[in-house]
Amino acid sequence: MFFRALFHYLREHIKTVIVFCMVYLIFFVVNYLYFVPLEPVFYAGLLSFVLCLLFGSYGFWKYYQHHLQLQQLLLEIRIGIEHLPEPIGWIEQDYQNLIKELFEEKVQIQSDADNQQTEMVDYYTLWAHQIKTPISAMKLLLQAENNWHLCADMQQELFKVEQYVEMVLQFLRLNGISSDLLIKQYPLDKLVKQAIKKYSILFIHQKISLQLDPIEEMVLTDEKWLVFVLEQILSNALKYTKSGYIHIYLEREKTLVIEDTGIGIRKEDIPRIFERGFTGYNGRMDKKATGIGLYLCKQILSKLNHSFQITSKIGEGTRVCIDLSYEALEMIE
Asked: Who contacts 24 (Cβ-Cβ below 8 Å, separation ≥6)?
């Protein structure tokens, strides 16, 4: 850094160096033309050079210290600009005034954006909670209806509405997930059965069989968030499995596998299925996919320090592996 600073200092003062050399040359030529002895000329030039070297060294030292101050400020600029160094010259003062003006504008814009974000999150959170009331009322009305087939269809659609509302709530809570985690040991079969029970109405309505192997394993995780992930995976499996079965089992120690016989995912879509808003070929054909479910799963499992892998073949089905062996204690600091 020292030599780099020296290089830039000399380059910025190259005009001064050239002028000094030209003045020294003129001084030498004039004295030579008037037959002045060269010894005092060289001596005067040497003294001038030493004087310029001393002033130049001092100038470079100030320049280098100024550079170090600005480098340190670069690390703190996002917090504040109170420690701006004393400006060297009028132009630098203008630059600092410009920086202060831009920083104040940036703080104001960020404050407005934060307020808007908070208001939006509060509104949609309130909306998601309020809409649960008419959903519950509709469920009660459907239970009193005599037409079983009509009720079954309407309950299925109502269940989907409820799931979309739940997805909105979890999406809004995603940024603050770290403060909402309750990490401890849970029986994995209990968490899996919670997710299955919630989707039992879709299993029955779509006549999809479930193969659930014994899962006798304790995992270190957060119950609420992991169950939400399992629900999203089951939701996708049921959505794209028209006939056949869904198989849930442990492949290795603490590696949960959810396998279906659905339509599968195209090979070129798999690298992007965790991107927010990406629906892929199946989503474009379905016309109802949001591209949010797997994105949320990926983000949540990353926070829980669990790995997540999907393999699929068109026409054969999809296989989701969740490795729950990684401890999530690192997330609580």
From this structure: 45, 48, 49
Report if pTM > 0.70: no
Q: Is 209 within 8 Å of 243 (Cβ atoms)?
A: no
The span from the CA of 239 to the CA of 327, in Å, is 31
What digits encode the pLDDT tens for the residues 115-156? 877 777 776 777 777 777 777 777 777 776 665 555 666 777
Q: Count Cβ atoms within 10 A of the Cβ of residue 75 and give its class: 0-12 exposed, 13-18 middle, 19 or more buried.
A: exposed
Short-list 200, 292, 297, CA closest to 246: 200
Quote the CA–CA distance of 245 and 208 in Å, as a whole number: 5
SS3 5: helix
Beta bridge partners of residue 218, listed in sequence order: 187
Q: State both tokens at 119.
A: 């208001």
Q: Which helix (DSSP H) or strand (DSSP E) does residue 103 occupy?
A: helix 90-144
Exposed/middle/buried for residue 298 (C-beta within 10 Å: 0-12, 13-18, 19+): middle
